[in-house]
Amino acid sequence: MKKKVKYLTLFIFPLLLLNACEMKNAKTNARLITLDPGHFHAALVQKNSYPETSRDVYVYSPAGQDLDEHLKRIAGYNARQENPTNWNEIVYTGNDFLEKMLSEKKGNVMVTAGNNGKKIDYIGQTLAAGINVLSDKPMAVDIAGFDKLVACFALARAKGLLLYDIMTERFEITTILQKEFSMIPAVYGEQQKGSVDDPGVVKESVHHFFKTVSGKPLIRPAWFFDVEQQGEGIVDVTTHLVDLVQWECFPEQIIDYKNEVEILDATRYTTAISPTQFREVTGLNSYPQYLMKDVRDDTLHVYANGEIRYKIRGVHAKVAVGWNYAYPAGGGDTHWSIMKGSKAYLLIEQGQAQNYKPALYIKCVAADTEQYEQDLQKAMLQITAKYPGVSLKKTGEAIWEVAVPAKYHNGHEAHFGQVTENFLRYLKAGALPEWEIPNMIAKYFITTQALEIAKNKTK
Prior knowledge:
Number of domains: 2
Structural class: alpha/beta
C-alpha cells in the first residue's frame, strides 16, 4: 500500500509542476491585439515571431484597404522562405470593432499603428479596459492630445499596465555608437551647450511618401496626407529625433519637462503632391473631400516638414524633418546628426557619398591631436568589448570613420522586432525603466508645444 502511494505521489507531482508552469506562462505570455492597422508599422511588429507570444493575433478593424494591406503583409511573413512566421490572424470587422475589442479582451497587449487623430482615444479606452498598449509614434499630435496622454500614463500606473511607444531609431547601430562614444570623456569631453544658431546637438531626417516596404511598393491611405488625421511632420517623425536627443545626451536620466525644457522656436512648411503622384502612392484617382482644404491649383500641399529649436538641461538642440515625394535611385530615408563635445564632434551622415547608408565620423576638435588619437585608440577597447569588429579608419586630418561590420546593419524594419522584444521583457517584469515614462511625457511636450508655436507663425 505504501508503495502505491509513493508511485501516485511521483505521478502527481510532475503534473502539479507542469500546471504551475502553465499558469506562470499564462501570466507572462503576450497575446497580441491589433487595432485599426492603418500604418505598415503595425505589420512590422509581427515581422518576427516571439517565443513568449501566442501565434493567435486578434485584429479589430473596419473593413477596407488599410486592413487588406495589413493582412497581406502578415501573410507574406508567414509564407517567406527564410525564417517564416506562423501568425494566425483572427479578424473582426464589424462597425463596433472598438467596443468588441474592449469587451472581449482577447489579448493583453494592444498594438496600434494607424490614424493618429484617433490614436490617443484608442489608447485611453484600451487602458481603461485593463489592456497594455504598444503604440507606434506619435501618441499625441497636439496639445489636447498631450493632456490626454499625461492622463493615460496616470491611468496605466493606477492599473499596473504598460504604455510604451515604438522608438526604433535607438537600435540603429551608428546612433548606438554615437551614444557610446559620447559617454567616454577621453573621446568626447563635455557636452557643449551651444546656442540657438549653433546648437550643441542636431538631428535631422528626410523621408519619402513613395517607398518600398518588405520589398514591395508601399500603398499609403489617403488620410496619411491629412494633417488632422496623420499629424504634421513636426509632431510625427520629430518624435524619434527628440527621443534620441534625450536618450543620447542624458542616458537613463529623468527629464523634468516643466523645469528643464524650453522651446525657443519652431517652423513648418509644406510638401507639394501632384495629382499623378497622389494617384501613384494611394491608388486613388482624386483627392477625398477632407483633403480639399489643402489643395491649391490641383496640387496637394501637406505640412509634412518642420524644425524645432529648444533647450534641454541648458543644452541647445535642433531637430528637423523633411518629406520629399520619392528618393533618388539607390537612396532611401536619410538621417543626419551631430553631437558636439569639447574634444570631438560625433557626426552621422547618410548621403550619396555614403551610398545612402548611415556612417559615423569622429572629428577631433581638441588642441593636441596626437594625444587625442592615442586616447581614441585606447577607448576603442571599450567599444570593441561590446561590439566586436568595430574599428577606426582615418579619413582626413584628425577625422576618423567608425567602420561597422555588416552584421550590425540589420535595417529599419528589423528594429521593430527589437523594440517589441524589449517591450515583452518589460511586460514580464511588470514595469518600464523609471526614466522612460517621464521622458516620453517630455518628448511629447516638446513636439506638441512646438507645433503651436509654428502654427501661430504661419497664421
